[in-house]
Amino acid sequence: MEESVGRCGFISVVGKPNVGKSSIVNRIIGQKVSIVTPKPQTTRYRALGIKTTQSGQIIFVDTPGFHEPKNMLGELILKTSREVLKEGDLVYFVAEPGMPGPDDLSILKLLHREGKTAIAVINKVDTVKKELLLPVIEDYGSRYPFVLIIPVSASTGDGIDELVRKTMEYLPEGPKYYPDDVYTDQAARDMASELIREKLMLYTREEVPHSVAVDVYEWKGSNKGIISIAANIYVEKDSQKGIIIGRNGTMLKKVGTKARREIELLIGEKVFLSIFVKVRKDWRKDLNVLKDLGFSRKAIKW
Ligand SMILES: Nc1nc2c(ncn2[C@@H]2O[C@H](COP(=O)(O)OP(=O)(O)OP(=O)(O)O)[C@@H](O)[C@H]2O)c(=O)[nH]1
Ligand SMILES: [Mg+2]
Predict the structure, then answer these.
(1) Residues near ligand 1 with C-beta < 6 Å?
(2) Residue 297's pLDDT is what?
(3) Which ligand is nearest to the CA of 37?
(4) Distance, CA 280 to ligand 2 centroid (Å)?
């Protein structure tokens, strides 16, 4: 790694659920750092997206959307997002291009309390007319002393280059923390679990997407050059197990095929994926199970 001194720092990417935090990080990095779905509360762990440029390194910390916790999992998640917000050199406050709602306002309150240097990133500008954007920008500007307010679209890429370029100016000077070719801190095994969870969230409805946890518990090479991966999907009730397996196993097969293809792309190897569905009653309320599944490790890791 070249040891040139440029700018390097951590950006805490925060906002309410579903505003496009993970999409923005993925777009900037050019890789799937965090999974994305149309459903709120997709991200559960903080994950680093590392962008190395000629002038330095920006380390984005993607976080779960701030929301009122309904169980132990929700509490761990909220704790993660709060901690990350406090720790960053700079905060991206991500919002949708509309007037702020109660969730946006409570995050702004936290920003005030912590006195963080922050950029407001108004995402999804592809969904509104330009003239509707101005009052939103003015409103956010009046609520917090943001150093910048930048409209972007993670979907089209609009405004993203400008955002990255301007972000550099607010980072401390220092050497890079990570080698140039590293784009995330996540282990392949954890990313594989997330890809399986993404497919589950995409193909199921109502409470099911939020009731699943995935644990990749085996990862081994075979003599034929195929990686053999085994994962457990945990659900909270028998009825959810039935939904995930689907009629004649069709749902599980679809999830498995889609996830396997993406895992193969991620690791550049052929994969044999076995998935099992298990019921762990009310696992989201049980700290012991959450610990088993690595939630507390991932929640506090920084
Ligand atoms: N039209 C449009 N949709 C977007 C844009 N950015 C993200 N989305 C969509 O918004 C939804 C939520 O995106 P995510 O990136 O998962 O949002 P998030 O803020 O990370 O959500 P949580 O992890 O649940 O807090 C997905 O369906 C995205 O495809 C955008 O710029 N324009
Ligand atoms: Mg997310």
Answers:
(1) 15, 17-23, 36-38, 40-43, 64-65, 123-124, 126-127, 153-155
(2) 61
(3) 1
(4) 25
Is-contact 60 11, C-beta < 8 A? yes
Mean pLDDT (the chain, rounded): 94
pLDDT digits (tens, 9 = 90+) for 122-147: 999 999 999 999 999 999 999 999 99
Distance CA 26, CA 29 (A): 5
CATH-assigned architecture of domain 188-300: 2-Layer Sandwich (3.30)
DSSP letters, 223-264, are TTSEEEEEEEEEESSHHHHHHHH-GGGHHHHHHHHHHHHHHH
Which pLDDT belongs to residue 72?
A: 92
Give the ligand at the shortest distance from the Cα of 17. Answer: 1
- Where are the CATH 3.30.300.20 domain residues in the chain? 188-300
Whether domain 5-175 has CATH 3.20.70.20? no
Distance from the CA of 224 to the center of ligand 2, in angstroms?
Answer: 36
